[in-house]
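Q: What would this chain look like folded?
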Amino acid sequence: MKRDGDDERTLAAFDALVTPGTRVVSLSHVSWSTGAVLPVARIAALARSRGALVVVDGAQSAGAVPLDVPSLDVDFYAIPSQKWLLGPEGVAALWISPDALGRARLTMPAYFSYERYDSRGDAITWPTARRFDAGNWYKPSIVGFARSVGWLSMYVGLEWAYSRSARLARATADRLAGIPGVEVITPRHQMATLVSFRIAGWEAEAALDELGARVFAIARTVPPLEAVRISVGFFNSEAELERFAAAVELLAAHTPTSLPPRRSLDIIPEGAR
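A: My prediction, written as C-alpha cells:
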C-alpha cells in the first residue's frame, strides 16, 4: 500500500506482482486510503509490456483533478456518477481504449454486436455485452449524469473547480499537519482532494464519531491505516474547513476520557410547558 508518495517504491511493488502470466492489472488512479495520486501511466506501461490489460478506477479522480485518459495508455477507465461529478447514484461511465475495443471486436461473437454509421454513411459494427443486461437503462439517471457533467463544465468551470479544490485540500492538509499530535498521511506533493490523517491517542472510529457530532463532519475511516479521511471540494468554504480543523485540534489536545463533553440540547418535558 502506498504510504509516502514514492513512485519508485510503488512501481517496484507492481514489478514484483505483475508477471508475464498476469491477465489484468486493476488499480485506482487516486488511492482511496492515502489520497495519493498513483503513477498510472508508468504502471500501465509495465503491465502492457507483460501482456496484461489495465483497468483503472477513477472514482476519486474524475471531477476532482484534471484528467487526460488517452495519455495514460490504459485499456479501461471507469468512473461513477455520484462522487466528484456530483451526479445521481447507480450509474457510471466506462472509457475503453481503441486497442481494447478492437480486441473485443475480434473475440466477441457477432450476435453480441450492433451497427451504427459513420459520417460517410459506412456501417461500423460495435461489440456489446447485452447478455449481461439485467433490464433496461434507467433513463432519468443517465440524464442526471449528463446534467451534472454539463453543469460542472459549463456553469462551474472545470479549471476553476480543479484549482479551488486543490488549493483547499492542500491548505487543509497543511493546517492539520500543523496541529501537535496529528499525522497527515496524504503526501502533499502527490495529492488530489482526499486528506487522510491520524490523531494521537484516538482510534479512528472514535475520532470520527466526535468530529461528526461536534461539527457535523461527513467523513470516513480508513481501517487499514487506522485513519480518518475527508474529501475536500470546490463546494467547501474556508470557514467550514477551519471549523473542522479546530475540532481536530480540540481532540488532539485531549484523550477520549479527558475531552470536554459536548454541549447538549435540553428538551423540555411535555408536562413542564
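The CA atoms of residues 27 and 55 lie 7 Å apart.
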